């Protein structure tokens, strides 16, 4: 079933999922905040349903109820950790894609353009995998980049030539350093499951991106 879902999460299906993932947050104009809030509500609803089921099954057994409550709380925390990692990673990857697409258009250096092209393809692949995991877990993902990242992109595109290239590479290196730390922590701390497995398989790719970016950055004059 999961294999079939992964095949179906292309074309129109991915577009539909992206639309469902989009959340409007008038309070902070922050796509990640909106997705985190939606996921928290989903997890709370599931947790409440589990507690109600436990009450019905063990209404006369206080010890069983206490144990069930403790188990549900632990599961809730694990789900929240996984959902927060997916939201953070997905938004960061969206930002890397937008940065790279900008560089393809505006960068002056050929190596920078080549790196940007590779980044777009790789991060789109990562986001496709995260969409499948989120779909399986009924989690929402950001419908776009956060307002802070949008401003960073706008500021970058005010630059031209070598100044643009240097700033872009600074942002790519910094961004992937943060991503590498986040993926490493997720793989270390998350419980066994699709999200942990994804983090472990993707961390080497993030590290590879980082090394390539450092080399291109060092080559710029």
TrEMBL record:
The keyword Signal applies. Residues 82-215 form the DUF4142 domain. Residues 1-22 form the signal peptide. Keywords: Signal. It comes from the Bacteria. Transmembrane segments: none annotated. InterPro entries: DUF4142, Ferritin-like. PANTHER family: BLR2558 PROTEIN. This is DUF4142 domain-containing protein. The lineage of its organism: Bacteria, Pseudomonadati, Bacteroidota, Sphingobacteriia, Sphingobacteriales.
């Amino acid at each position: 079933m999961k294999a079939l879902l992964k095949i179906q999460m292309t074309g129109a299906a991915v577009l539909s999922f992206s639309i469902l993932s989009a959340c409007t947050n008038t309070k902070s104009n922050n796509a990640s905040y909106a997705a985190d809030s939606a996921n928290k509500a989903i997890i709370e609803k599931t947790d409440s349903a589990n507690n109600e089921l436990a009450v019905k099954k063990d209404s006369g057994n206080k010890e069983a109820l206490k144990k069930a409550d403790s188990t549900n709380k632990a599961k809730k925390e694990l789900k929240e950790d996984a959902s927060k990692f997916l939201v953070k990673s997905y938004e960061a990857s969206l930002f890397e894609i937008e940065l790279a697409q900008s560089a393809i258009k505006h960068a002056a250096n050929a190596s920078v353009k080549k790196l940007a092209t590779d980044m777009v393809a790789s991060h789109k692949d990562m986001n496709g995998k995260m969409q499948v995991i989120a779909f399986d877990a009924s989690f929402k993902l950001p419908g776009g980049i956060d307002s802070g990242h949008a401003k960073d992109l706008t500021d970058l595109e005010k630059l031209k030539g070598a100044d643009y290239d240097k700033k872009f590479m600074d942002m790519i290196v910094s961004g992937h350093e943060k991503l590498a730390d986040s993926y490493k922590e997720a793989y270390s701390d998350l419980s066994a499951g699709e999200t942990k497995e994804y983090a472990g398989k993707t961390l080497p790719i993030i590290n590879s991106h980082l090394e390539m970016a450092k080399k291109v950055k060092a080559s710029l004059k």
